[in-house]
Design brief:
It contains 10 helices and no strands. The chain is mainly alpha-helical.
Length: 198
C-alpha cells in the first residue's frame, strides 16, 4: 500500500510537469476506483459513467493546481462529490423538486432495494424514511460524516482527508453524529439500538 501511494504521488508530479503518459496512467488508475465511488453516490450506472468522465476531465484540466500530490485521492473524490452535487441541484431545479426531497427519494430507494419479500421491503422503507427525516434534522457536518462512513464505508483517515480535518476529529464527529441520529430515531419510537441492527 505504501509503494502504491508513493507511485501515485510520482505519477501526479510527472503529470504536473506535462508528461502525457503519466496522465494516461493516472486516469486508468483512477477510473475503477472513482467509478465505484461515484456509483455509490448516484446509484445509477449511466449517471456514474457521465460523472466519472466529467471528473476525469477536470482532473486533466486542473492537476497543475494540486499543491500536495499526496492528497490526490481526496482531491479527486472532492471533485467528484462537487460534480454530483451540482448535477442533482440542477436536476432538482429543472424538475421543480427540492434538493433534499431528491436526496430523500434516492436514499429511500437505496435502503429498501435489497429486501426480498413485500413485508420486509415495507418495514425497511419505513425505517429508511425515518432515517432520512432524522438525518435531515442533523447539522450538515453530521450528515456528511454519516454518509461517508455508513454508505461509502470510508476509513476514518480518508474521511479526515475529505473533510480536511484530523482523523481524531472525524472519529469524534462520527460518534456524535451517530448518537444524534439515534436520539432522533428514538424520539420517533424506534429502539435506541436500531442503528446497530441495520
Amino acid at each position: 500500500m505504501e509503494i502504491e501511494a508513493e507511485d501515485t504521488i510520482a505519477l501526479v508530479r510527472q503529470a504536473q510537469l506535462g508528461q502525457p503518459w503519466s496522465m494516461d496512467c493516472l486516469a486508468r488508475r483512477a477510473r475503477q476506483r472513482l467509478y465505484a465511488y461515484v456509483y455509490r453516490l448516484t446509484l445509477n450506472h449511466d449517471l456514474a459513467q457521465e460523472q466519472l468522465q466529467e471528473t476525469l476531465l477536470k482532473m486533466v484540466e486542473r492537476i497543475s493546481e494540486l499543491k500536495y500530490p499526496e492528497r490526490f485521492w481526496a482531491w479527486l473524490f472532492r471533485t467528484a462529490v462537487g460534480n454530483v452535487q451540482h448535477h442533482y441541484r440542477a436536476e432538482a431545479k429543472r424538475e421543480g423538486i427540492d434538493f433534499q426531497a431528491l436526496t430523500r427519494r434516492r436514499m429511500e430507494q437505496y435502503l429498501s432495494g435489497e429486501c426480498e419479500d413485500g413485508l420486509s421491503r415495507a418495514i425497511r422503507r419505513e425505517l429508511s424514511r425515518a432515517v432520512v427525516d432524522a438525518m435531515g434534522r442533523l447539522p450538515f457536518s453530521y450528515r456528511h460524516v454519516l454518509m461517508l462512513r455508513c454508505f461509502d464505508q470510508m476509513p476514518f483517515a480518508q474521511i479526515a482527508e475529505m473533510m480536511r480535518c484530523k482523523e481524531v476529529r472525524a472519529r469524534v464527529l462520527f460518534f456524535r453524529a451517530r448518537h444524534a441520529l439515534a436520539r432522533q430515531l428514538h424520539e420517533r419510537g424506534f429502539d435506541e439500538d436500531i442503528l446497530a441492527r441495520h
